[in-house]
Amino acid sequence: MKRMLVVAVLLALFVPVCVMGQNTLETVKTRGKLIAGVNASLPGFGFLDAATGEFSGFDVDYAKAIAAAIGVDVEYVPLTAGERLTALQAGQIDVLIRNTTWTLTRDSKELGLNFCPTTFYDGQGFLVRKADNIRSIKDMDGATVCVTSGTTTEGNLADAFRANGLTLNTQVFAATEAAFGAYDAEACDCYTSDKSQLASLRTIAKNPDDHVILPDTISKEPLGPLTRHGEDEMFDVVKWVVFATFFAEEHGITQANVRTFRSDNPEIRRFLGFEGGMGAKLGLSEDWAVNVIAAVGNYGEIYERHLGPWGLAITRAGSLNDLYTNGGLIYCPAWR
Amino acid sequence: MRKKLTSSHAIPFWRDIRVLRVVSQVLFVMVIAAGIWWLLNNLQTNLETAGLNISFRFLNNTAGFPISEGLSYDPTDVNGYAFLVGVVNTIRVAVIGIVLATIIGTIVGIARLSSNWLVSKLASLYVETLRNIPLLVVLFFCYFAVMLTALPLVKDSIRLPGFIFLSRRGLYIPSLVPTGSFATWGFYIIGGLVLAIVVYLFRRAQLKRADRPGFPIVWAIPVFLLVVIAGWFLASGNPLSVDVPVLKRFNFEGGMWLSTPFVSLLIGLSTYTAAYIAEIVRAGITAVSKGQTEAAKALGLRRTQVLRLVILPQALRVIIPPLTSQYLNLTKNSSLAILIGYYDLMNVATTIFNQTGRAVEMILLVMGSYLSMSLLTSVFMNYYNRRIKLVER
Q1: What pTM did the predictor assign?
Q2: Cα angle: B246, vertex B250, B255; to 5 degrees
Q3: How far is B348 from chain A (nearest CA, A)?
Q4: Measured distance CA(B136)–CA(B289) in Å, rounded
Q5: What does the pLDDT average to over A240-247?
């Protein structure tokens, strides 16, 4: 009995040390569940419906897609901007899909994170009140700007005002709700964030029509999923799940027709898992890509569902988020 | 015969209480040390596995983010300085908060013991309400419910006499700006201070010799004021000029600015902590037996004199130790500032660690900062506690 106790104590001492070194993909398969870090308060991207307790949004669909590829369930962990990177570094979540901007520092070994392909090309903008008669950033000398802490936003904001030689006052909050609430209560003249977020938040303002998004875009904000640095198996899977949604749109494969889709095109046959053994190469089943599209649809369908005219109404045609064949940046590498 | 008896009754060392005491303590220390070693080792191993290492070099990198409150700061300053701005902001709200909480707490505590029914019931209501609401809710209420709805927009600020403007952005008051002749006046201030101390010491010695009660400060203050006022007129030109806040397109510019988050945090922290302090003060006063009050009254002391000369000196001994904990609580609770947008050290630290990704290092710095602030407060309060402790003869 005593000896067992000693063994138990020793185990308890050393187990936590080993956990981090493991292969996340294997851990997810064994656990039967993917733990994804998402946003809970950004309609259109990641939003927790208080009434039903369901998560929904563009980013949430990508979490579903990854889980479908591996063939497991998904559990969502709502995270604030400040918590998200640490949560992934510390192994609290398997993958982070929370409108996170791809930057060199974040992608480096120093932070221990890897960025998967961009799912949404965004840029930082300004939301202001129509009544203030602001046309561009140059009209905002001395304005007070509300910001959410823990984002690239604060740095971009300071840079933009500095570049234009303008005086800047800011107020930084931990939670988006508080920061936007303060702007809505006119404690600030302006709220700044990625334009997609501005479109989303404008819908929950007291009076959405009183606000306008300025045409200025002051930064590049490529948003996409992240995995931990050095976990190549998981990194590859997430990367190719994103590409699968691009591929499907390019070739007209949709949620409705994917199960019955047949083609003589060898690349499409490899995509559908009829030949090539692409699943085994990623450590997945052969029909993984079919499962992804069956679960959430192709890129265009995901976009349409959350960001289209019935969602946030962010124009896609002609933007960076259009397929490369239409002049956008949505492009899938060779499927071989 | 005798020798045999002792040796057969000698206690074996594993049952010797003296040995056991030492052994148990050594074991205890070893367990604690092993625990700490394990935690540190765990951290080290996990950081290494993740390819991270602890380094504070990022503090010398350009911060690049804005801070709008506190010490003069520019986004081109380094992270280390940005953190210092946050630390100073925390100290600012903590020190003013402690003073306010002590004043409000003492008044409410004494009021709760008042023989006036209404006063004592109002004090009870204050204590029971604030003590039973989470601080976070109090802060949100102060900021979002009171400040951001009751106060007017910056365009239609309330104008108080003396160029003071109150709005949702905060309180703008005229500030004094040193001019060219400020240095000359500074000499008069220092001179006045030295002179005042000399007068104070002289008067104190004089009173002691005459064995009379009295306050030497009553002589020292007028001397100081006299020198300072004389200096004002003797220096060429006004040493200070007034900077009046002026409404520009979006905000007031010039003057001094107390932001709404700062004021909300200050009010929230001090009223909340005051509820606890009131109870401590009440307990301290009740701890002094009723006989003392009656005896003092019998000697013909007035009510205020009874409180000042008899009750409080004894009550303070009971009050100080728990009061110290409340001061520490107030300082640490100020870390909720980020929720209402005040640039305290936690707020700035969060931004730095998100820009640089140095979470472990920033948390260590934050822990170190709060620890030093709390230890300094404790050292001071313990010193004060020793000074007022009952000297037993």
Answers
A1: 0.75
A2: 30
A3: 9
A4: 38
A5: 97
pLDDT at A17: 43
Indicate whether this complex's ipTM tops 0.90. no
Mean pLDDT of A152-169: 89
pLDDT tens digits, residue range A304-336? 999 988 778 888 988 899 999 999 999 999 999
Domain A124-219, CATH number (from 3.20.20.70, 2.30.30.240, 3.40.190.10, 1.10.760.10):
3.40.190.10
Superfamily of domain A21-121+222-326: Periplasmic binding protein-like II (3.40.190.10)
Both tokens of B390, joined, read 């009952």
Residue % of chain B over a pLDDT of 90: 42
CA of A229: which chain B residue's CA is closest? B50
Long-range contacts: A2-8, Cβ < 8 Å, 24+? none
Residue from the list B50, B347, B357 with its beta carbon closest to the beta carbon of A172: B347
Query: Are B68 and A144 an interchain contact pair (Cβ–Cβ within 8 Å)?
Result: yes
* Least trusted range by pLDDT, from A124-138, B171-185, B199-213: B171-185
Q: How far is A168 from chain B (nearest CA, A)?
A: 8
d(CA B299, CA B302): 9
Within an 8 Å CB–CB cutoff, is residue A170 touching chain B? yes
Residues of A in contact with B245 (CB under 8 A): none
CA B289 to chain A, closest CA, distance in angstroms equals: 50
In chain A, where does the domain assigned CATH 3.40.190.10 lie? 21-121+222-326, 124-219
User: CA-CA distance, B342 to B344, in Å (whole number)?
Assistant: 6
Q: Chain B within 8 Å of A80 (Cβ-Cβ)?
A: no
Amino acid (1-letter code) at residue A32: G
Q: Residue B341 and residue A182: Cβ atoms within 8 Å?
A: yes
B49 at interface of A, judged by CB pairs closer than 8 A: yes
Mean pLDDT of A75-85: 90
| Radius of gyration in angstroms for the set of CA atoms belonging to chain A, rounded to a whole number | 22
The band of B334, judged by pLDDT with boundaries at 50, 70 and 90, is: very high
Contact B339 A155 (CB under 8 A): no
The pLDDT tens digits of the residues spanning B184-213 come to 888 888 999 999 999 999 888 888 888 887
CB pairs under 8 A between A and B: 130
**Residues in A touching B148 (Cβ below 8 Å):** 182, 185-187
- The DSSP letter of residue A124 is E
> In whole angstroms, how far apart are CA B212 and each of A65, B171, B204, B205, B300?
88, 47, 10, 11, 20
Question: Cβ of A141 and B51 within 8 Å?
Answer: no
CA distance to partner chain A, nearest, from residue B46 (Å): 6
